[in-house]
Records
---
Amino acid sequence: MKILLIEPARYRSDGSVDKTRVGFTPANTLPCLAALVPPRDQVEICIDMLQEIDYASGPDLVGITGYTKSIARAYDIADEFRRRGAYVVMGGIHVSMEPEEALAHADTVIVGEAEETWPRFIEDLRAGAPQKTYKGLPRPSMAGWPVPRYDLIDKKLYYTSRGGPLLSRIIPLPTYSIETSRGCPHNCSFCSVTPFLGAGYRVRPVPEVIAEIKALGARGCSFADNNLFGDPARAKELLRALIPLKVVWAGNATMDCADDEELLELAERSGCRSITVGMEALCDETLSEFNKSFNRTDQYRRQLAAFSRHGISVLASMVFQPGTGSPGQFRRVYEFLTSAKVPYTAWWALTPLPGTRTYRELLEKGLLRRPRWWLYKPGAYPDYKMSGPDLTDEEFFRGYMKYYKKFYSLPSILRRLPSHWKKAWWAEFLWNLPIMFIAHLRRDAINLYSPLGQERGFMALFLDRFRRKGKPAA
Ligand code: B12
Ligand code: SF4
């Protein structure tokens, strides 16, 4: 069988497909699925954001993934391939939350994790008896995975896997996205991780993670875990095993990991350069609304300083809830982050993702303008009523843009970064400069859904030399 796996791009608000010339780090979804395809089948990967889709290539089976953000584009691709006679299967987080919706566009929908169902479906299809829906096992084992087929992705498409010998002496190339665990011990109201992967935290055997890094020849790892330190004892085992590999890495964790000095020390020794943390808000009441009271605002400064002492650059993720709060909230967040010398931040307008408590609450309160907002092209604002007693839509947008840009302005960078007690200050300084250029010159790159064009990576945007390469929607 000839199998084509597609990662769809998203539509921009003008209806064009969000294309770019170079990506940052390849996502691991399609390489993982490709590795599970039986050797007798031929498999190809197409990254819509970076490549043209060849609808005439005549695949027997088209597999499409998709986040909520790219699902409208994913459905259009699926419809076109079906019109041309291909069998279309869809999987991933969005269709797992909305399988009925997806069945209007796909012949088969795979719900949940697919390590077991995807190979089973291929054999059913070969035997001429595919089912309409396959449901992954709840909390499946993460042992025995094959090495992801990154070799199927053209190296030239990704900044972090091409480099060349000279560049790779200066920065850790190649870098791959690697998963070591799934799930999260928490259940924040806006996050779809626990609704999708189930409660609890599952891990891959450490020797298998290490073997994968070695097999890929990775010098940099971008860990795709939601919470790399979800189980501190196991995290320490992983970090100890990483030390001899001399890789550098970035990952996601919660703020409270900064309270564990041994963990931070091992993170530093194992090559940790950056951790993204969900700080979300500076107000305990908002954090409690988000079911995130494990974040302690009174500890933030101390925790941020602990990361810094270990040379770990924090990317603080902040969420703003339109309609609530006052116009002054953006200034307060900006001032806190600047005075606490936070190196990077990403700001989000709260997004009602399907399957989350946030989504259900907005729906029940009648606040969603269009319940299936993801089927429409994105507008300037989130698709729910944002106006509140003290804040209009316009004030929200203006305040958000003004202070977000201010954070990535030269005065703020100079105030935040050069500091003798910050081990990584010079690297942070160098990385802040391209972000500053993007924040101020690439107006299309920053919006309420995607600060700094998150899905491409800010460095890729920078290398894109400020040129947009869009094409009208099909
Ligand atoms: C790492 C990560 C990122 C990285 C990706 C880096 C990279 N290059 O890999 C970065 C930081 C760039 C990122 C960006 C974004 N992310 Co993100 N991210 C994640 C995270 C933590 C892990 C994703 C991952 O790699 N998983 C491992 C792979 C193997 O799992 P998987 O894709 O789910 O695939 C499995 C199954 O779903 C299934 N499957 C998937 N597709 C298909 C297709 C077929 C045909 C089949 C058969 C099976 C199948 O099989 C796979 C094996 O079991 C997830 C949380 C999570 N655990 O899902 C959030 C998550 C996916 N991200 C999320 C969001 C919202 C975003 C952004 C939209 C944020 C933004 N506003 O910009 C962007 C959009 C990115 C884009 N491309 O459009 C949400 C998505 C929610 C939703 N309903 O869409 C998640 C779930 C987190 C959350 N808070 O809820 N993200
Ligand atoms: S801690 Fe992070 S990954 Fe875990 S539920 Fe909350 S937002 Fe999601």
Note: The chain has two domains: 2-135, 163-441.
---
Amino acid sequence: MSDYVLEIENVSKSFPGVRALQEVELKVRPGTVHGVMGENGAGKSTLMKIIIGLYTADKGTIRYKGNILELKDVNDALNVGISMIHQELSPLPFMTVAQNIFLGREKRNKLGFIDHQAIDQATANILKDLNIKLRPTAIMGTLSIAQMQLVEIAKAVSYDASVVIMDEPTSTLTEQEVKHLFRIIEDLKSRGVAVVYITHKMDEVFGITDEVTVYRDGEFVGTDDTRNLTRESLIQKMVGRSFEQFFHKQTAAIEEVVLEVENLCRGKVFRDVSFSVRRGEILGFAGLVGAGRSEVMETLFGIYPKTAGRVVKDGRELDIRSPKDAIGNRIAFLTEDRKGTGLYLNLSVRDNVAIANLVNYLKGGVFIDHQQVRAICDDSVAKLRIRTPSLDQLVLYLSGGNQQKVVVSRWLAMEPDILILDEPTRGIDVGAKSEIYKLMSELAFRGKAIILISSELPEILAMSDRVVVMHEGDKVGELTREELSQELILHMATGEPRSTFAGAQQT
Ligand SMILES: Nc1ncnc2c1ncn2[C@@H]1O[C@H](COP(=O)(O)OP(=O)(O)OP(=O)(O)O)[C@@H](O)[C@H]1O
Ligand SMILES: [Mg+2]
């Protein structure tokens, strides 16, 4: 018997114009968590889709429990014990949680009808086992993204899998939910299940994996024991170079106030939020998931109407009723939910970058200056290293992280006065992350005002000149760069005022 439950050798896969994988290997031991890392577009998701029979490899072998694996389709994979939680969720919104979990293998009663009671009961048991607090009869469409993610996890586990693949499973989870997921992973491991875990987050790699395999540009770089790796050596493997500076914070002159928000309210969602931003400033927004930070920005940007409050730009009160109004006032917003509100999957990379900026490219007010559009797109693609065969490629075919980079490029290309970034580096690889920090810094240096929402505290701490902390729809306080500390932000993010902070140790 082999040491490995899954053994992949010399697997290659090409798409039109893209060599996604070139003779890669992956060897996974049972009862371990095997990390998979690599820059956006390195081929991670493609390899996983080959393992579960969604794509067919052009060449190479896959052995599962010692035998060559030949799958007809994804159901085949589930039935032999390989399941996957996808990077892009695609639940069926009108189905219940139970129907979603048992899709394609519904229990039937004696008359051949689907036995809803039986699947509800079975689902209740699975959820209970995983300590997931959801009703089997809840409708998928009414769940939050994080809850849907948990259903996906429950589904993957429910097949009595020997290999569970998780493709960036924590990108939309709160810290609590991440902890919960990690407990589930530990439990799977102790039952001998192998978990293949794709992530861009260093903490996760060092926190839960036993081994890590790195891919770069579709090629296999190597597999190491996590214990033998450091952050630096891992980054080096991923990007093929090391960087001296990860967070680029340039000191910019902070000038006059450009935007003032006074007592902004949206019903019960958030109340009386006031803040201002200056030219050259990066204003961080910290808080736990659900604190209302995104909601404030959505209202400011005209996606949802405010119920009270004023927004003043350059001394003039604005009446923003739609994103179009906001863009007209040179406010840009990189939303958290790129698929829902940010990306046009069926348009090309070029059109996606150009779309918010068309006004800027009108020649004589009427014709689109295609040459300029091309120049700007080329520039973005190069700067953020978007991996695409051409600017005409449909965004649909880009890797998850590269899709994100397209949206980021769009708003950067617009040269706004005020740039709101909601979780700008989620799902983005280390190299491009550092590139985004550099671009943010440059924009601030050129006199733009930037609002940064992030759940990654190191990012907030390194990049912000000032930080607003929110808790359950209220602004709790504001901290200057000198006052910032991780402990203080966390303290305030739970709703405690700054005056009750005890752990004011200097670090
Ligand atoms: N269906 C497809 N058609 C055309 N090209 C594709 C398709 N799927 C993936 N690609 C391309 O293959 C390459 C590898 O993509 P893949 O999604 O595997 O990357 P990844 O490592 O998962 O990246 P990320 O970290 O961004 O999720 C990318 O250049 C991508 O654009
Ligand atoms: Mg991927």
Note: The chain is about 30% helix and 25% strand.
